[in-house]
Amino acid sequence: MEKYLDAFINAFEGTLNWTWKSILFEVPWYTNYFWGLVAISLFVWLLEIAFPWRKNQSIFRRDFWLDAFYMFFNFFIFAIVISGVYEVLGLLFAEFNITAKSFALIDMSNWSSGLQLFVFFIILDFVQWFTHVLLHRYKFLWNFHKVHHSVKEMGFAAHLRYHWMENVLYKPLKVFGVMILGGFEPEQAYIVHFAAIAIGHLNHANIKITWGPLKYIFNNPVMHLYHHAYHLPEGKHGVNYGISLSLWDYIFKTNYVPEDSGTIEIGFKGDDKFPQDFIGQNTYGFGKGKG
């Protein structure tokens, strides 16, 4: 038991120290996700201000500061808190000889760096797309995902407005994706992580971008706005589940973009009764009788 407690404490302290060092610019720039998030957020926000899609939407839109808090909570505070739990789980799996290479289907270690990065990006994006579908398909998961869909005015910070339970759901599946790759994460994986932040911010931003013919490959704000639409096609649990890539939606016929005015109502049925504060939103999914 002592080794598990030590592992928990060491992981917690290690993540806390790394985050603090990031704030103080004492880590390599390509692993400094704190200031990377700040820089990308400011850049996309300036684009929103300069080229607003919905002209009548305020610069400090509804729930702007709540969403800003969610960004740092989900990206850093929760990561610090949960890091010890993941370390303990790693030790428990090791007791049964389950390692990062146990389910390896692909060995990328001898591939070129560009090919490693490409395959890493594709597989992780598909795993996230599939997880996103599950969040909409099953009521128990949807009750947590409602936090993200409770946004009533879209802006870049809405990207990271989600229930902390989504971290619990996404992380193991993303780890499984890495395990498929032989437990191997490319040296340049930071490029994928920063690109995912930028694409996610843009997809939620008040900017009209379609990427032209590339819309069939990359997700975009016009497509993602309809993911948040209040009124969905009959019989659909959701549409446009893409994270960074839209191609999964086109392949599996979950794409839906009937027009591009940007004026549609977003949210979900009953969102007028959904909690408006951080605590209420993050305890909601654990209540009884939620629809």
Automatic annotation (TrEMBL):
Specify where it is mainly localized: membrane
InterPro entries in the record: Fatty_acid_hydroxylase (IPR006694), Sterol_Desaturase_Related (IPR050307)
Cell compartments where the protein resides: Membrane
Q: Give all residue intervals belonging to the Fatty acid hydroxylase domain.
A: 118-254
Q: Which UniProt keywords apply?
A: Membrane, Transmembrane, Transmembrane helix
Task: Give the highest taxon in the source lineage.
Answer: Bacteria
Q: Offer one Pfam family short name for this entry.
A: FA_hydroxylase
Q: Which residues cross the membrane?
A: 33-51, 72-94, 114-135
Is the keyword Nucleus assigned to this protein? no
Keyword match Transmembrane: yes
**Annotated protein name in UniProt:** Sterol desaturase family protein
Q: From which source organism is this entry? A: Winogradskyella alexanderae
